[in-house]
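Predict the 3D structure for this chain.
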Amino acid sequence: MNNYEIMFIVKTTDGEEKIKDTIDNMKKVITDGKGKVVETKEMGERKLAYPIKKELNGFYVVLKVEANKDVIGEFDRKAQISEAILRHLIIKLDEE
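Done. Predicted structure below.
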């Protein structure tokens, strides 16, 4: 199991309930693959530096997870096809 930090931006125009559902669904992708969500930081709604998919604001979320590369690959796939996620970034943290 490797440590990863995942940041993603959720569309805010669909409402608060849809934001929470999207966050829960993405966390479920990790846990269903036998990974572990160590920490969740909801950084809130912020103005984007430039429009993404015609959206001006986004809800930022940072997850720290322990998972293998197959689980991260599935997360990446789901994030790319999700209409609710504007952008995502996955960083593998160094082992200490």
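The longest helix spans residues 16-32.
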